[in-house]
Amino acid sequence: MPAAPTATLGPVSAHSTTDADAPGYALERELAADGATLVAGVDEVGRGAWAGPVVVCATVTDGTEPPPGLTDSKKLTPARREAMSELLRDWVRDHAFGRAEPEEIDEVGMTAALRLAASRALAHLRPGPDAVILDGKHDYLGRPWRVRTQVKGDLSCVSVAAASILAKVHRDAYMVGLDAEYPAYGFATGVGYPTPAHRAALAEFGPTPHHRMSWAYLDDLPQWKHLRKPPPAAGRQTSLL
């Protein structure tokens, strides 16, 4: 396999070639061999939540051995994710976050909101990447970015796995902060997803300013249904789940 440019990947680590269960550098190397000198991995969190922003993280690595145990954020306990994120912040060459707020999700729909959040994250990388590895099978980013989609990229790709953990920890911390203001909704543990405590609080108190008001859950709350905003003009929101 041809060596990738040192400006992008650096030395080849044993982690990327000998551990079949760990994320590797195959996709970064493929893009580097095709001329990309800086490759970013991108992942999002909060797409299916009823409250809070959708958050995207973009990361650039240097090809060295990542922290042991790096994997998809969903495979780690909260304590392990937090510890891993501390290691990753020091290890990655660069990373940045972007978010789209609930009112933006309501206005443009989830696909466009993801594009906003990802574009904001990528715009803060210095220098900007030549190519982007996007977790999943849908390219919600599009031009002018050169995008490579990868199903389960957070399991197979080092930079995407790092992005998945950093995004999750970043958004969770934000939702924990909201819990102090809205304790009934269980944001500290449910982080805006429809847990039983969240559903009960919605039924009793209604949505907060941090809820997505165009979503169909309001149809099941007769006393609050009148608050629902119409979906984006283009029609139903595109599901990427």
Briefly say what this structure is.
It is built from nine helices and five strands; from the N terminus they run ααββαβααββαααα. It has helices at 15-18, 26-33, 78-91, 102-108, 110-123, 153-156, 158-181, 187-190, 196-205; strands at residues 39-45, 54-60, 94-100, 131-135, 147-150. It starts with 14 loop residues before the first helix and ends in a 36-residue tail after the last helix.
* Share of helical residues: 25-40%
Strand content: 5-15%
- String of helices and strands: HHEEHEHHEEHHHH
C-alpha-based Rg, rounded: 19 Å
What distance separates the N and C termini?
34 Å
- Low-pLDDT stretches: 1-18, 235-241
Number of strands: 5
Count of helical regions: 9
* Net shape: globular
Helix-and-strand structural type: alpha/beta
User: How does the major sheet shape up?
Assistant: 5 strands, mixed
Q: What order do the strands of the largest sheet run in, or round the barrel if closed?
A: 3-2-1-4-5
Average of per-residue pLDDT values = 89
Write the layout of secondary structure elements.
Elements: H1 15-18, H2 26-33, E1 39-45, E2 54-60, H3 78-91, E3 94-100, H4 102-108, H5 110-123, E4 131-135, E5 147-150, H6 153-156, H7 158-181, H8 187-190, H9 196-205
Parallel strand pairs: 1-4, 4-5
Antiparallel strand pairs: 1-2, 2-3
Description:
- The two termini are 34 Å apart.
- This protein is globular.
- It has 241 residues and is an alpha/beta fold.
- Mean pLDDT is 89; it is low at 1-18 and 235-241.
- Helix 3 packs across helix 7 (158-181) and helix 4 packs across helix 5.
- Strand 1 and strand 2 form a beta hairpin.
- It has helices spanning 15-18, 26-33, 78-91, 102-108, 110-123, 153-156, 158-181, 187-190, 196-205, and strands at 39-45, 54-60, 94-100, 131-135, 147-150.
- A 5-stranded mixed β-sheet has the order 3-2-1-4-5.
